[in-house]
């Protein structure tokens, strides 16, 4: 919003800005992030649907019941679910304005996220080694597409978490960093919910087929 000032003869017209307030919509970032998560839901819904359609398309090759290591997958699941709990502790520390406690619990969350990724990469490597790579059949293509996309999201979450730790160390618990912690919290818990679906629909049901 601007207001023009009548200029004297021979002088150029000048403009004076009167509205210097912040035009950022309250909670606009959180709303935008919710919209992003809804779009991510559509991506995973499509991947789950694809897996469901191709769940019996083995092309004469191995099935999930032949190769899945449920104890290993259960261990990996515990890593991700525990990371959701530790992130909750980080949120509690932030609400109490404890910077160091927030950083410690976020760091623990990152370690658990990396542990999850390490086990998943080990599983992928083993499956490819025994001839059950994504090119083996439509079933394994759908499996790697769904589980791999989730793993990619976890990787992005870990990178985001490390970046957030650097920002917290530099700027502390200011308004912007609190907003970032909230957004990453929604993203991280969303990945946990998706993984519960993957564990149930892909691994448990796949082991019984």
What can you tell me about this protein's structure?
The chain has helices at residues 28-53, 64-67, 70-95, 99-129, 138-171, 175-208, and strands at residues 2-5, 14-17. With 209 residues, the chain is mainly α. The chain has a domain at 68-208: Four Helix Bundle (Hemerythrin (Met), subunit A). The longest helix is centred in the C-terminal third of the chain and has 34 residues, at 138-171.
Give the helices and strands, then pairings.
Layout (H helix, E strand, L loop, with lengths): L1 E4 L8 E4 L10 H26 L10 H4 L2 H26 L3 H31 L8 H34 L3 H34 L1
Antiparallel strand pairs: 1-2
Classify the secondary structure makeup into a structural class: mainly alpha
Superfamily (CATH H level) name of the domain at 68-208: Cytochrome c oxidase, subunit III, four-helix bundle
- Strand arrangement, largest sheet? 1-2
Distance between the termini: 65 Å
- Chain-averaged pLDDT: 91
Q: Rg, please?
A: 24 Å
* Biggest sheet descriptor: 2 strands, antiparallel
Strand element count: 2
In a few lines, what is going on in this structure?
This is Cytochrome bo(3) ubiquinol oxidase subunit 3. With 209 residues, the chain is mostly helical. The protein has helices at 28-53, 64-67, 70-95, 99-129, 138-171, 175-208, and strands at 2-5, 14-17.
List keywords for this structure.
disordered N terminus; two-stranded antiparallel sheet; mainly alpha; 2 strands; transmembrane; Four Helix Bundle (Hemerythrin (Met), subunit A); oxidoreductase; cell membrane; 209 residues; membrane
